[in-house]
Write a structure and sequence with these properties.
Length: 48
């Protein structure tokens, strides 16, 4: 397990978790992911 921390850009939300390292990152350009991310591409990775 690895300690990972993160949060939003304005700093209001912060989080910390213990999880296995993320080994796979995926990119998706479908219309649902573009709408959800508000960007031309969405990135995601599994957390176990
Ligand atoms: Zn998608």
């Amino acid at each position: 397990m690895t300690q990972m921390t993160g949060g939003c850009l304005c700093g209001t939300i912060r989080y910390a978790m213990n999880a296995s390292p993320i080994l796979v990152i995926s990119h998706c350009h479908c219309s649902d992911c573009r709408r959800t991310a508000g960007a031309p591409v969405s990135r995601s990775g599994p957390i176990t």
